[in-house]
Specification:
The structure holds two protein chains of two kinds.
Chain A (H helix, E strand, L loop, with lengths): L2 H9 L5 E6 L5 E6 L4 E5 L4 E4 L3 H8 L9
Antiparallel strand pairs in A: 1-2, 2-3, 3-4
Chain B lengths: L40 E7 L4 H5 L58 E2 L21 H8 L19 E2 L6 H8 L1 E3 L2 E2 L6 H9 L97 H7 L4 E6 L1 H7 L26 H6 E5 L3 H9 L5 E5 L13 H17 L6 E7 L25 E4 L7 E3 L3 E2 H11 L6 H12 L16
Parallel strand pairs in B: 1-8, 1-9, 2-3, 4-11, 5-12, 6-7, 6-8
Antiparallel strand pairs in B: 4-10, 9-10
Helix pairs in contact in B: 4-10
The chains are: A alpha+beta, B alpha/beta.
Chain lengths: ~70, ~525
């Protein structure tokens, strides 16, 4: 799943995109949403959800959330 | 009572103690009516994300869809040409998990005109169903309004045809309440864009500021605008036509190029979307996160009320629940950026002002309703329903919020404080949804799109549609006049800007009242 697709699915559910930037390694995107969730999206298609609101976002993306603190 | 505007506040550096009221003078044109002191209690209920035409487009006597010209109902493509048909709603009209869904394919080939979501001959989606959210952002809203023509809502949306959606709300509880009291049909959102910004306008009439943002973690969130300064710079790879997809911009950030925060940032204090810094104060949000807004210091209406010893509170649904248990979805789905005072240093954790004024409304507003029933509301109350009851597209439906707010109104009407009460039920902004009436020309921040507003009071005119031009700051105008407060700087700027454009002045809500 690419970053545009993730943004489309999450924002359609009323969860605003609040930040989008290339990650420090330059191999993917870091996305932040208004419910506190963050999604790390690799250019190769990997994705990892964390932060407050991660359960809601993971559900929208049909993904398991990353445990808090990991 | 004479207009008693004190000195406007021109910066946060001006200590509140220096504010002085102007001496009383002879009545002037535009003064509030003598009977304004009959209102002893003001209640503001702030719902979410509905344009006027979206809910009240067919309200009898209002300037609704029935009075709109055919041309004003049409949308244009990004090159300015009139669309032959609307694009589909990308990813479908209904929210994820809704059954039966209204898919993207089912929304193909809609005529270039508004459509009614719950039309039995159309999609027939009831008011109890959650639908697709839409961009509702600072620059996109201005691009969509397009100088007042309102013909680019689809062009600069992320949801295809969705901005042209509306509902037959004539059977809702709030429609009946609007028929009983006053529906304001020229009430506009105070700022362009979304909830974060318009909650700030409700309490401050100001744009929050991020000092030295270009040297901060938020630097990549600085928007890139075109030469107009009111529109985003379009990316080279942006689809040229609405039929080809969602537009792309060079940088669609939260901050203006001169560092004002106009799209959603997180509060610097908990509850915030951002966790505390590792090892840091548990009551704060991590300031190193790019979306954490530094504490704000601009004067707010709360500061003005406190200055004049007027009691007030911001009642937030699920506030304490979220602090104690964390947020849960779909209920209560607390929204961090809907709590405007939580961005201000004056209401930081540990302050007496926070304890006194930032109150928990309880789950489903139960504590707020108890205060109503007990007749112990402060002189000014703001009520923010929890997320699932706020009518926001994407995660809330209209029916649940409408019934909740109508229930709150029913309690207000029975309150011991009702005989001298004014209630305003309005929405923070349009939620990206089209409306056909041009907003008044104002300053760089707004007003934006027209939204519904209902004025209730024993002194409200009955069964009346108030055509007076208002915006969100009109609520502040009423509070300021009634309690003889110093005027917030943003109101002064707004009034001057509106006058400079030759627009009629924005009202103070008394057009809907009969105080004599």
């Amino acid at each position: 799943m690419d970053a545009d697709r993730i943004v489309a699915l999450v924002t359609a559910a009323g969860i605003e995109l609040t930040d989008r930037r290339r990650n420090a390694k330059g191999d993917g995107w870091s996305l932040s949403f208004s419910n506190g969730a963050t999604v790390e999206v690799g250019d190769e298609g990997s994705a990892c959800v964390a932060g407050k609101g991660s359960k809601a976002v993971a559900r929208l993306l049909d993904m398991p959330p990353t445990p808090r603190g990991s | 009572m004479k207009r008693s505007y004190g000195l406007a506040l021109f910066s946060s550096a001006l200590a509140l103690s220096t504010v002085a009221s102007a001496p009383a003078s002879a009545a002037q044109p535009g003064d509030p009516p003598d009977g304004i002191a009959k209102i002893e209690t003001v209640v503001v209920i702030f719902a979410e994300n509905r344009a006027f035409d979206n809910l009240y487009g067919h309200f009898p006597g209002a300037e609704g869809l029935d009075k709109a010209s055919k041309e004003s109902l049409q949308q244009r493509d990004r090159d300015g040409s009139v669309l032959s048909e609307l694009p589909p709603v990308w990813d479908g009209l209904t929210a994820k998990g809704v059954t039966p869904p209204v898919t993207q394919a089912m929304t193909e080939h809609l005529p270039n005109e508004p459509f009614t979501v719950n039309d039995p001959k159309g999609f027939n989606v009831p008011l109890s169903v959650v639908t697709h959210d839409l961009w509702h952002r600072f620059y996109q809203n201005q691009m969509q309004i397009n100088g007042g023509k309102n013909d680019m809502f689809v062009a600069w949306a992320d949801s295809g045809a969705m901005p042209m959606s509306n509902w037959d709300a004539s059977k809702t509880d709030m429609w009946a309440i609007a028929q009983k009291y006053v529906l304001a049909d020229h009430f506009f959102m105070g700022g362009f864009g979304g909830s974060f910004f318009n909650h700030q306008w409700l309490i401050c009439a100001c744009a929050p500021y991020y000092a030295n943002a270009d040297k901060s973690p938020a630097k990549p969130s600085i928007a890139v605008t075109d030469a107009s300064g009111t529109a985003l710079k379009i990316a080279d790879n942006s689809p040229k036509s609405v039929r080809d997809g969602i537009p792309k911009f060079v940088s669609d950030g939260n901050l203006t190029p001169d560092f004002y925060a106009v799209n959603t940032m997180q509060p610097p204090y908990q509850p915030s979307g951002n966790d505390p810094a590792p090892g840091g104060d548990r009551l704060l949000a991590d300031p190193s996160k790019p979306t954490t807004l530094p504490p704000q210091t601009e004067p707010t209406i709360g500061d003005m009320l406190s200055l004049k010893h007027v009691s007030w509170a911001w009642y937030s649904g699920a506030w304490q629940y979220t602090l104690d248990h964390g947020n849960k979805t779909p209920i209560p789905n607390f929204q961090y950026h809907h709590q405007p005072f939580n961005y201000y240093a004056n209401y930081a954790p540990g302050t007496e002002a926070r304890r006194e004024h930032l109150r928990d409304a309880g789950l489903a507003g139960v504590s707020f309703i108890q205060a109503i029933d007990d007749g112990v509301l402060p002189q000014v109350s703001f009520y923010k329903p929890q997320g699932n009851l706020n009518e926001h597209s994407g995660y809330a439906d209209i029916q649940a919020g409408d019934r909740h707010i109508a229930d709150v109104v029913a309690h207000l009407e029975k309150s011991p404080q009702w005989p001298h009460m004014l209630v305003v039920v309005t929405y923070d902004e349009n939620g990206g949804i089209w409306d056909h009436v041009a907003p008044p020309k104002g300053d760089r921040w707004g007003p934006g799109t027209r939204i519904p507003a209902i004025i209730l009071s024993p002194f409200a005119k009955h069964g009346y549609v108030d055509h007076t031009p208002y915006d969100t700051t009109s609520i502040l105008r009423f509070i300021t006049e009634r309690f003889e407060l110093p005027v917030l700087h943003g109101i002064v700027v707004r009034d001057k800007a509106v006058a400079a454009h030759g627009e009629p002045p924005l009202g103070d809500l008394t057009g809907g009242l009969d105080l004599n």
